[in-house]
Amino acid sequence: MCLSTLRITDPMNISKPDSSSAFVSEFILVGFSFEWEVQIFLFSLFTTTHVLTITGNGAIICVLWCDQRLRTPMYMFLGNFSFLEIWYVSSTVPKMLANFLSETKTITFAGYFLQFYFFFSLGTYECFVLAVMAFDRYLAICRPLYYPNIMMGHLCAKLVIVCWVCGFLWFLVPIVLIAQMPFCGPNIIDHVVCDPGPLFALACASAPTTQLDCYTLSLLVIFGNFLFILGSYILALLAVLCVPSATGRRKAFSTRGSHLAVVSLFYGSLMVMYVSPGLGHSAGMQKVATLFYAMVTPLFNPLIYSLRNKEMKAALRKVLGSSNIN
Q1: CA angle 228-234-237, nearest 5°?
Q2: Has residue 324 been placed in a domain?
């Protein structure tokens, strides 16, 4: 997120702006620079990961669409979450793959900011929708008698719409302000995705207000949603501990296990990247951490939700006509 402005810029990783140079019209997104054989291997690996991510999340959407028994709020949010993940990886990975086979690795000014906007907007939406999914599970565990009357279809639809709107409006103003800043050459950005940190380093003039706005919005969306999720888990845990039967406790915990795993993967990688004490991460560390929440987490989400959920496994067997999913 825009918390990348927190990182101490390493002079070895980011080119110094040169005020005497003409304003840039494109950027060089360095990505990974290895020998050609390694580049081809990474291209194949990332392509396979991208295809598996889209296939896995697409399979969840198809299963939820075909199985009438899964037309519940929890699975409605899950289907929307899988739809998000498809677009989330598609906002960055295609350009990443193209750079593996490109000698110039250039991206236009408009292309950089389009990726920047969609990647951050979809990431922001993921923060909001994970909080909504936590709220749904909180109601199901702590208010089971009221849950069917509260979490009805129209409320679910409104929550999803609000998450989409907030996600795409949250960073709109800061991104527009950053796009209006003058950027001087050289235009080399040592990263795998379009990130604001290197942009501020390449600006001809400092913009502390814009950086502060970006930083504040990032803090609000990351920590606000994370603390909300954490609070819902604490309340749910207290409620589960009051359940007299061990079977009831196991069932309650199982409904939150998948969501907890996804939250841990997503927020864990974000906080390692942006909130760890060693803020001066190397360029390589920044790339690996970015890949984790941009590619690895969306790949694991279908596995987590399908393999840990008996209803999903049964629906997958029914839709795929296979008994190999145990």
Answers
A1: 140
A2: no
